[in-house]
Amino acid sequence: MRTGFIGLGAMGAHMARNLHRAGLLTGVWNRTPEKARALAAELGCDAAESPAELAAHCEAVVLCVSADPDVLGVVQAMAAGLRPGSLVIDCSTVSAETARTAEARLRPIGADFLDCPVSGGVEGARDGTLAIMAGGDAGAFERAQPALAALGRTITYFGASGSGQAAKATNQIMCAGIIEAVAEAMAFARAHGLPLEKLVETLGKGAGSSWYFVHRAPNMIRGSYPAGFRVRLHAKDLGICRAMAARFGVALPVVERMLGEYAELIERGYGDEDVSADFRLKAQLFDEAASDHAV
Length: 295
Ligand code: NAP
Fold this sequence. Notes:
- By secondary structure, the protein is of the alpha/beta class.
- The protein has two domains: 3-161, 3-Layer(aba) Sandwich (Rossmann fold); 167-294, N-(1-d-carboxylethyl)-l-norvaline Dehydrogenase, domain 2 (Orthogonal Bundle).
- Helix content is 56%, strand content 13%.
- It has a six-stranded parallel sheet with strand order 3-2-1-4-5-6, with helices on both faces. Strands 7-8-9 form a three-stranded mixed sheet.
- The longest helix is centred in the middle third of the chain and has 29 residues, at 163-191.
- The mean pLDDT is 96.
- The structure holds NADP nicotinamide-adenine-dinucleotide phosphate.
């Protein structure tokens, strides 16, 4: 299956390399063209001039761009190059509604759009071990198997268009709670003067552990938060979760609290750091209390 890739960011560049390793990658396109040229030179594939040109040379195109308007913009820009039977596999995290809008836009062309958001972080993208949550036409999902198998290890079909994004939104709510709990716990442990490496090693095998704790608590020990998963991207996801819950007349407390904390981090200029930067706010609670005591 001749496959193209659009969106060579923290996730996408690794994902494109895995498609190349599987012998599927024909070409790439990126909004900032230098990134596409550099990766094309590394992998020996084409750097397309436009999304439509890439689509015209491929049977399938995988996208991994930032947010809802970006996906709709790229889909629009590809349309002229798509044919009946072309497959667009969107691995970005966007709303279920955006997935349904994109699918509806491609239907008159006879091209299929699958929402296939992913989980597993930059490491999962690099190692080809992502969890992939798919929605869209079941036949299109079957045709997408070679590309999906190159990108992930757990690949699940959830149903009609938008179902993959609903599953991903569920994951992002869970992540919000874990991100806050780990930051709070690590700030607490630091205030107690515990040896933090030893703590992560030990609690990493305990009942409160998670992928996030094992892989991101070390950022908090080092006081460095390279992306990773950017604060502004998770804030974007939680905005989607907020809107999806609001349709049921519900405000989710964990989502609301993290949106507040992310707004503060973004205002202070930390929006492009990894979400583990939430530790900055939790550590500050202890630092402020200590200086109040000292007064
Ligand atoms: P990133 O490093 O910020 O990369 C974003 C990519 O999207 C870049 O290639 C960017 O192009 C492109 N882009 C943005 N707006 C665009 C537009 N209007 N038109 C065309 N291209 C556009 O983000 P990322 O971390 O790879 O995340 C990408 C997606 O995966 C997001 O939806 C995110 O929520 C999701 N995700 C991320 C993680 C993670 O751990 N990072 C995990 C799971 C899912 P330029 O190079 O020109 O900026």
